[in-house]
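As a warm-up, study this chain.
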Amino acid sequence: MDRQEVHNSPVVSGIRIFPIKSLDGIPLEMAEIGHRSLLHDREFAIIGADGRLMNGKRTGRVNQLKAEYNLSDMTVNFSERHDTITHQFKLLDEQALIESYLTDFFKMPVHLLHNKAGRLLDIPDTSCLSVVSQETMQYLAQEMPGHDAADLRLRFRVNIELAGVTPFWEEQLARSSGIPVPFSIGSVQLAGNSLRARCNVPPRHPHSGETDKTFVKQMTRARAQNIPEWSMVDELPSLYYLSVDCSIPVTEKGKQIRIGDQLAIH
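Now compare it with the structure written out below.
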């Protein structure tokens, strides 16, 4: 049975995309909808010669690579975290140079993949973007010593953040029945599909890559103390879930999501 919905007044308070999968994100005031994803979100990815992604699951070295972007001319500046020396590349025109730099950085051969159709997302089509509330982040920060909301944002890498709601309000966008929940943000039509199961990436420090072995235990303890009646998280294999995976119909391409847009469940 679906649990009772609680309708607050959710508005978009944060937008973030991650042009190169597993690397730094960019905060935006407005995000355009691309093909089943936010435009430029996870448009690029780094893989090893074995075809496996270079991500935080594989190596903490990923966290030590700083990436800053200028999307107006599609350039990226790479540097060792906390180093002042940067190396600028054109994302669309200098693939060989980028791969050479990254091969030196990771000390293994790597390749840069490019896909504008959302194929590099973790779960294409059904997880086009993720949604969480700032109240959720603030609650977890209060209950997890050594972490603040800004730190948790870097660790969980969610696209859309909401304000004006109670902690874990976003979890009513996913139903235990598995039936998608239709909703809109501004003029953009979306559907909530499932809570996001988390992996061994969030416990890694977002800059050093060092693993906090208490992270999962702290988070699940905090979740156990706050399971709203509308949430299905206690029906899942563990409480180590955060944010809601959502899909974007192809009809929404070219529309925009902006800070201040209201979210409405249909």
